[in-house]
C-alpha cells in the first residue's frame, strides 16, 4: 500500500480560495437567507405587538386612575 503525498503550492491554494470566494450562492444559501429574514420579520412583529399591548394597558391604567374619567369611583 503506497501513501501519496500531495504538495500544494501557495499559488494553487490561493487559486482555490479565490474560486470558492467567487462562487455564486447555492439554492440552499438563498433559502437559509430567506428563512433568517422571515425569522427577523416574525420577531419584529412580536415586539410591535407587545408594544401595542403595553400602550393599551397604560391607557386603561390612566383612565382608571383618573378621578374624572373613572365614574365607578364616584359612588
Topology of helices and strands:
Layout: H1 10-21, H2 27-65
Number of helices: 2
Form type = rod-shaped
The helicity comes to: 55-70%
SSE order in H/E notation? HH
Q: What is the terminal separation in angstroms?
A: 100 Å
Mean pLDDT: 78
Any idea what the radius of gyration is? 31 Å
Content of β-strand:
under 5%
Largest sheet: none
Oligomeric description of these chains: single chain
Secondary structure: number of strands: 0
Q: What structural class do the secondary elements suggest? A: mainly alpha
Q: Which segments are poorly predicted (pLDDT under 50) over 5 or more consecutive residues?
A: none
What report would you give on this structure?
- By secondary structure, the chain is mostly helical.
- It has a domain at 32-67.
- Helices cover 68% and strands 0% of the residues.
- The protein is built from 2 helices and no strands.
- It has helices at 10-21, 27-65.
- The relative contact order is 0.05.
- The model has no long low-confidence stretch (mean pLDDT 78).
Gist of the model:
It contains two helices and no strands. It has 75 residues and is mostly helical.
Notable features of this structure?
single chain, 75 residues, mainly alpha, rod-shaped
Amino acid at each position: 500500500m503506497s501513501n501519496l503525498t500531495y504538495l500544494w503550492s501557495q499559488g494553487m491554494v490561493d487559486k482555490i480560495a479565490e474560486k470558492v470566494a467567487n462562487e455564486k450562492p447555492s439554492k440552499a444559501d438563498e433559502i437559509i437567507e430567506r428563512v433568517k429574514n422571515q425569522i427577523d420579520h416574525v420577531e419584529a412583529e412580536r415586539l410591535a405587538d407587545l408594544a401595542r399591548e403595553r400602550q393599551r394597558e397604560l391607557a386603561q391604567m390612566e383612565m382608571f386612575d383618573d378621578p374624572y374619567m373613572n365614574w365607578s369611583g364616584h359612588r
